Amino acid sequence: DWYVEPRIRGGYPFIAGAGVAAGWRPKKNEKLGSRSEELEAGQQEAARLQEEQRQEAARQETARQQEAVRQEAEEKRQAEILRQAEAQQQEAARQEAEEKQQAEILQQVEAQQQEPARHEAAVP
Q1: pLDDT tens column, 13-54
Q2: What is the per-residue pLDDT across 52-108, written as a single tens digit (0 to 9) for each?
Q3: Residue 20: partners with Cβ closer than 8 Å, 6 or more residues away
Q4: Residue 21: what are its φ and ψ, rounded to 5°?
Q5: What is the C-alpha radius of gyration for the chain, rounded to an integer number of angstroms?
Q6: What is the DSSP string of 32-57?
């Protein structure tokens, strides 16, 4: 918005003076428009930053979940290895007990087989 302004001066260093000044004055709406544009740009930047933060938080949460799943799978694998080792130990103990029992039965059979020979040797 352009303006023209007359000027009249009096006093030192002049006795009297007259003149005209002209200029451009922005409208209030233009000032508000530029301010609102700045505000809108700031809001858009804030929204963009919030979205980036949300996405980063989502990535971090996904990474935490993946790590938890990986740890759970590792724990299950370790538990399965432990269970298999215990089953092997139990099987070895069972086989050892079975072998011991078979050895005792074999000793009893041998003793029974030797009993008639001892009995005949003891009888004159």
Answers
A1: 767 777 888 887 766 655 556 677 788 888 899 999 999 999
A2: 999 999 999 999 999 999 999 999 999 999 999 999 999 999 999 999 999 999 998
A3: 4, 5, 6, 7
A4: -120, 145
A5: 52
A6: HHHHHHHHHHHHHHHHHHHHHHHHHH
Rounded to whole angstroms, how far apart are CA atoms 24 and 59? 53
Look up residue 28 and give its amino acid: K
Q: What is the DSSP string of the chain?
A: -EEEEEEEEEETTEEEEEEEEEEE---HHHHHHHHHHHHHHHHHHHHHHHHHHHHHHHHHHHHHHHHHHHHHHHHHHHHHHHHHHHHHHHHHHHHHHHHHHHHHHHHHHHHHHHHHHHHHHH--
